[in-house]
Amino acid sequence: xxxxxLSDVHGNLEAxxxxxxxxxxxxxxxxxxxxxxxxxxxxxxxxVELLGERVTRMVAGNHEHGALGLIDLDWFNxxxxxxxxxxxxxxxxxxxxxxxxxxxxxxxxxxxxxxxxPRHPEEWDYLISAEDGWSAFPDFSTRxxxxxxxxxxxxxxxxxxxxxFEDLGGPExxxxxxxxxxxxxxxxxVGSVGQPRDWDRRAAYVLWDEDARSVTLRRVxxxxxxxxxxxxxxxxxxxxxxxxxxxx
Length: 248
Ligand code: ZN
Prior knowledge:
The chain is of the alpha/beta class. The protein has helices at residues 13-25, 44-54, 62-68, 78-90, 93-100, 130-134, 224-233, 238-246, and strands at residues 2-6, 30-33, 57-58, 105-108, 111-114, 144-147, 154-159, 164-167, 177-179, 184-189, 203-209, 214-220.
């Protein structure tokens, strides 16, 4: 079975559609979403619907909880707070109910799925440095853990030959394939579909090949100008439109 594993769509329908088309061409028949389907972008309802029709597993992110009023928006920066309040007004009752029912963690085969960190998922810690990732291994029991949240793709691993960390951010990370070795465990950050922050504006996601026991980072061009135009038309903060062109 081959899965598209994606995160941080952030209401960017153009990016999500491009990623789903790419993953279909690559033979993925399963779909895992690691949360933050909404927030920042102009199409929260359409993204929730598209994901809801297709996902095999989906977990909630901090932007779901922010938009639903499940966490205090004082934790959000002013731009994220503005976007969360706008998203709250946009969400239809069925969409909100769907997001409210999402778990914080989910298991699938050899993988644990969580938005931010397997350690206290409700605290939304960022795994960014090599040490951040290595310290999170005691907090899940499967071979693999998929995370998002930082909007930066990378792979941490631990095993008998020592710790390893590969930053897959930027153009150099595109199409990098990492095969799983016996006796090692892995945390994979799949990057962001709808708002990359690693100086590569293309949408990021990971193909997980369960049988070949590997992950491959994909980067996908999409119509970022159309997504940015919708953000401006919705009177959301301009920075949210600008960063789609800059990839940071
Ligand atoms: Zn996010």
